[in-house]
Amino acid sequence: MPFTLSPEKIAAARALAAAVSPGQRVCLTTHVNPDGDGLGSEAGLVRLLRDRGVDAVVTNPTPTPSRFSFLFDDIPGVDRTGEAVKELRKADLIIVLDISDLGRLGMLGETVRDRGVPVACIDHHVSSGVLPPGPRYLDAAAAATGELIFEVSLANGWPLTIEAACGLYVAILTDTGGFRFSNTRPRTLRVAAELLEAGVDPEQIYLEVYARAPEGRPRLFAEALQTLVVEPDLGLAWVTVPPGAIERLGVSSDDLDGVVEFPRSIEGIRMALLFREVSQGRVKVSLRSVGNVDVAAFAKAFGGGGHTKAAGLALAGSLAEVQATILTAARDYLGSDGAR
């Protein structure tokens, strides 16, 4: 089956391309604590734009996790977060990727809001956030923002280099959990096939993303999983990162990626949570679900968001206080008709 785009998508993709011209200073950015989709999308799009003669740069509010640094080997300045505001102030166009909410841009949100230039957005999240005016390419049904950037390139006839394709492949690979999650559609696999045709080596990408872990990572998993609590009657399970474990083991918060999948994998579990104290008096909660439990709707009630089966939120309070609040709400939610 040939890969096709609707007339509406073609029009949106071409409108976005029309906003970009050679010689422009275009700044790409993504959310705080960037993941494989945000970073892979940046890595793919910055090369696509540079190949068109655009002066495109990447600048983010927080550093790139080490396992994704290979994406930017030939793109200097990505991790100069101290200069991020300065870079945004030089931009003629800002393109926000994998996010539609200024609040998730951290320290850069105010600059993006006040810069006074168009702000384009390519995203696959459902969001009630507001960005300054600019072209939009949005599709909440897409598995990853990287999938949408492939569509933009296709609609505009932009050839994919292997370097750009690698970034988009990482975006899709990570946001689908290695093509395991329910957001993996036939269309997603067709895009992945096109990226392989462009020269992506899936084994090499796997090794870079998933097989370069520091020794402290499995130790961190072990400590977190020792805290596992299961309430089988409700289908609820959760783990907690021991305070100080990340610093003590010499790892980063990115090394927690995948921990919450263990409680989710337990038979009969419908909602899994991971609690982590990110600073004194503030706790982050990662949520995953199985079946028709919508954790994005649950997270939204606490100012968070995400996808139906993968979401997150952060609350002020001690670890014990936030756990009590969230677990009480989770029990009520799982016991309600809406989560059945």
What does this structure look like?
The protein has 340 residues and is an alpha/beta fold. The protein folds into two domains: 7-210, inorganic pyrophosphatase (n-terminal core), CATH 3.90.1640; 218-339, Diaminopimelate Epimerase, Chain A, domain 1 (Roll). Helix content is 38%, strand content 17%. It is built from 13 helices and eleven strands. The chain has helices at 7-18, 36-51, 84-89, 109-114, 145-155, 162-175, 186-197, 202-210, 216-225, 245-249, 261-264, 295-300, 319-335, and strands spanning 25-29, 55-58, 93-97, 119-123, 136-138, 229-231, 236-240, 271-279, 282-289, 305-307, 310-316. The strands form two sheets. The chain has a six-stranded mixed β-sheet. Strand 6 and strand 7 (236-240) form a beta hairpin. Helix 2 runs antiparallel to helix 6 and helix 5 runs antiparallel to helix 6 (162-175). The longest helix has 17 residues, at 319-335. It is globular. The model has no long low-confidence stretch (mean pLDDT 94).
